[in-house]
Structures are given as structure tokens and as C-alpha cells.
Amino acid sequence: MSRTRTSTLAPIAALSLLTTILCCDAFVLRVPVSGVASRTSLSIASTETDATDDADAVKTDATDDADAVINSTPPKTKQLSSLTFAGKVEAALVAKFGGTEPIQRVLDSWRWADMDYTHREFMGPKQDPPVLDPATSDCHQLAPSYVADLTCREFWDASKFDWAKQLSDSYEDIKEEFVRVTADMDGLTKKNNNIWAGALTEDAAGYGEGWKTLVMVNRGMWDPVNANLFPKTAKAVHESGVPAAEVFFASMQPGSDIKLHSDFTNFVLTSHLALVIPENGNNKCRLTIGDETRQWIEGEVMVFDTSIMHSAINESDQVRYILMFRVWHPDLTDVEREALQFIYDVLEYPELISEEAGTRWMAEERLKMARSLPELEEKANSNNNKSDFAFEGRGKKGGKNKKNKKNKKKGGGHRGFGA
User: Fold this and answer.
1) In terms of DSSP bridges, do strands 155-156 and 301-304 run parallel, antiparallel, or are they unpaired?
2) CA 62/CA 341 separation, integer angstroms
3) What b/e string do you get for 118-146 counting C-beta neighbours within 10 Å, with b at 16 or more?
4) CB atoms within 10 A of CB 22
5) pLDDT value at residue 414
6) By mean pLDDT, which of 256-260, 318-322, 406-410 is the weakest?
7) In angstroms, what is the C-alpha Rg of the chain?
8) Whole-model pTM?
9) Are 191 and 388 spatial neighbours (Cβ–Cβ below 8 Å)?
10) By Cβ atoms counted within 10 A, which residue in 44, 109, 110, 135 is the most buried?
């Protein structure tokens, strides 16, 4: 794996941070986020002091001010009002998981989202090797969706994850199917609106017009249309055991870049299986997480933390394709993963916390269907894929019939939790 350390950065301060371009409107971040500190803003302005001020005291004050700009301290949390949607979700979590103790970090995360808290922290000292100067580093974490005390590193060792090896072993089959099916992508696009979704909000504009996604799994729920377009891929993903909340193909146009941004969530890591990389191995297609840059290599899996400021570039003259995953952070306990998934489920199906037993049951049944791997029919060639792709229960761009869309307004700002 080719890798270099970088120190180039457009100023992060005062910029309208870019939300991660997730594949359907269910994933658009709606949590208000203020700017993250930039190298420029990290420079402490000279302070007017009386001539009698102690120089050391002034230096200490300036250092404290700088740290306040770079790092934030999570506020104390308290039980949410049961009259609010957030409070009802919290009460359901406590009831489902037998009290607050096993899921306290998740409850805190949910409450911080309700408070519009955004976690900011300079992570340079925690890297290997450590980076100590925040003014010259891009290794800043920005996470409105934040679980405390999770390991934060730029790149993780993919060989430590069994699922990563299995996905890499399936590379040839996944690539062959992808190239074959997308050979007639214009025809597929005309027949179905789940194909190659672009940026859905102005906040996501930093991803550029060259960034497109094709959803396989959305917050733990399969897209049955795309799963049947790519049945070998769906089967490989399912059998790998990858703990993924999201799975999607992503394209990046030639000569395009993705500006420096955060994906806003620290309790999932991001992984890429490189499928089609122009000029493979010639360092034309690169990903930078914090201060470290690596190139995509076909067939290899990378795992990294996109709550850290990051960017990407395709300097080739061809399109780059990857299979992308959002995976649960390995520091989470099994119960915490289940609790976070339950929040995702409720955001998709608010009826799960209805006071009416029949309504809850119907929502649970719909959820079971959405979470299950669809029945797959492997296609012999791309011509067999030309169907109307119709299916029931899921609407445009991954997700919601009109009734659900209306109900989901109850979620308020929490719709962006974990996005």
C-alpha cells in the first residue's frame, strides 16, 4: 500500500462543512454544525495587556484560548423529556436494553445530538507517529454524532478484520459483476431512480458533481432493487459478515476532487474495496485522512476514520469506482451497536415506538423485511437486468412511502443522527 504523509490544507475555519453524501435523503445530515478551527483561526491574536501583566500568564491564557478553539468538552447530559420524540426514543432504548448502564454512552450520544453539540478534537497526538502542532495538521475530528472514548486513528490495519479479507477475496467476482451490469448504465438509469444518486443538499456540494453513489444497504436496510442488480456483490457482502450500517458503490469522475470535510460520525468507520482504479498503482487516485495519504489499489480494502477531516482526488482521465462501507466502530460493545441500530430503525420507522401495539407490530414486520437479505436471482448477463425494477414498500432514493415520509417529520433534527 503506497502511503505518504501530507501537510497541505485549505483553511478549515469558517467553512460550511460538507455533509457526507450518503445515498438517499434518509442520510442527509440535518444537525446544525458550526465551523471547525482552521490553521488561520488557530493563530492566537495578540492580547492587549497592562504593562504589569506577567508574560507567562499571558502565554498560558493564549494557550488555553487556542485549546478551546481546537477542542470541545462534551456537556453533562440528563434524561430527556418524555413529551418529545427524542425523549420517547430514549425511553424505548432504556426499556429495550434493561436500563441505562449498558447503553450509557449511546444515551449520552443521543442527548448530545438533541443539544446540537458538536465534538471537536485535535487527534494528532493520538496518531502513530504523533503530530503535535494543530496549526499545521489536518488531523482534527468533527463529529456531531459522537460516542465518547472511541479510538480515533487515521487508517486502521485492514488485516485485523476477517470480513475485510473475505471481501478482498471476493474482489474478482464483485468487479466482474459491477463492470458487466454497469456497461448499460444509461439504460438502467432510465428505468430506475436508485442508480447513481448525486449530492442531495447544498452542504454536500463539496463532494463535487463527479461523486455519485449506488446504494446496496442504507442504515442496515437492503435496497432490494440494487441487490438484485448486483446479486453476487450482495451475497459476498452478506457472507463476509461485515458489520456494515451502509454499503454502496461510489464513482469519482476524472479530474475531480472532494474537498476537505468530515463525515460527522465517530461511531462508524469507513472502508473501501477498490474496484476500478485508473492507472492502478501510479498514485493518480488518492485519499487523505488527516495528515496521511494513500492511493487506492484494486482488490485491496482500506479502513479509516472519516470523522477526521479528509479529502480525495482523481487525477486520472478515467472514472474511479469503489465499493464503500460504513462499519460499526470496533470499540463499541455488542449492546451499544444494537442500541445505535435501534435508533437508526426508529428514524426510518417511527411507528416502532408507537403506543399502539398493532402499529408497533406492523412496523416491526416491515423492518424485518427491510433488514433481511432480499431473495436474489443471479443474472447471466446484463441484458437480463432490463426489467422494470418495481418493488413494494420502498420509495425513491432508498426509502419511504408517503405515509412514512409524513411520520418521519417527527424526528426533527435527529434525522441526521449518525449520518
Assistant:
1) antiparallel
2) 42
3) bbbbbbbeebeeebeebeebbbbbbbbbb
4) 25
5) 65
6) 406-410
7) 22
8) 0.78
9) yes
10) 109
Task: Please report the pLDDT score of residue 193 as a whole number.
Answer: 53
What mean pLDDT value characterizes the chain?
79
Bridge partners of residue 141, in order along the sequence: 121, 308
Match 444537525 to its residue by C-alpha cell: 31
- Confidence at residue 392, expressed as pLDDT on a 0 to 100 scale: 29
pLDDT of residue 415: 54
| Cα–Cα nearest to 339, from 144, 112, 93 | 93
Tell me the three cell numbers of residue 144.
Answer: 456531531
Query: Can you tell me the distance from the alpha carbon of 94 to that of 107, in angstroms, rounded to the nearest whole number?
Result: 9
Residue 55 — φ and ψ, nearest 5°? Answer: -60, -40
Q: Could you tell me the pLDDT band of residue 256, with boundaries at 50, 70 and 90?
A: very high
Alpha-carbon distance 330 to 243, whole Å?
A: 9
Amino acid identity of 252?
A: M
What is the CB-side half-sphere exposure of residue 76 using CA atoms within 13 A? Answer: 1
SS (H, E, C) the chain: CCEEECCCCCCCCCCCCCCCCCCCHHHCCCCCCCCCCCHHHHCCCCCCCCCCCCHHHHHHHHHHHHHHHHCCCCCCCCCCCCCCHHHHHHHHHHHHCCCCHHHHHHHHHHHHHHCCCCEEEECHHHCCCCCCCHHHCCCEEEECECCCCCCCCCEECHHHCHHHHHHHHCHHHHHHHHHHHHCCHHHHHHHCCCCCECCCCHHHHHHCCCEEEEEEEECCEECHHHHHHCHHHHHHHHHHCCCEEEEEEEEECCCEEEEEECCCECCEEEEEEEEECCCCCCCCEEEEECCEEEECCCCCEEEECCCECEEEEECCCCCEEEEEEEEECCCCCHHHHHHHHHHHHHHHCHHHHCCCHHHHHHHHHHHHHHHCCCCCCCCCCHHHHCCCCCCCCCCHHHCCCHHHHHHHHHHHHHHHCCC
Q: Are 255 and 282 in contact (CB under 8 A)?
A: no
Q: Which amino acid is at 224?
A: P
* pLDDT of amino acid 39: 35
Q: Is 34 within 8 Å of 208 (Cβ atoms)?
A: no
Query: Cell match 501510479: residue?
Result: 282
Sign, CA dihedral 203-237-373-232, equals: positive
The dihedral of CA 82, 221, 238, 293: what is its sign?
negative
